[in-house]
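Re: the 79-residue chain
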Amino acid sequence: MNERDELLQELMDVIGEEGCGVSCEEATLYKDEEGWKMMLEGFMAPWNLGHTLAEAKTRILRLISRCSSASLTTSRVCG
C-alpha cells in the first residue's frame, strides 16, 4: 500500500463508510513541495495536511475531531 492509499484508508477508518460516502472516494490526495494536501468535493481549496505521512494522519484526526458532524459532504469547513 502506498502513502496515498494509507491516507485514504485513514479517512475511511476515522470517518467511517457512512460518514465518508462519496467524499472520501473522490478525495484528491497529493503531495507537492509544501507537503500532503487533500481536496474534498464541495470545498474551494485544498487542506494542508503536513509534510510527512504521520503529520497528515494526525491532521486528518484533528480536522475530524473539530467537526460537529462526521460528514464532510457539507460546504462548511470543519477545521
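Residues 68-77 have pLDDT under 50 and may be disordered.
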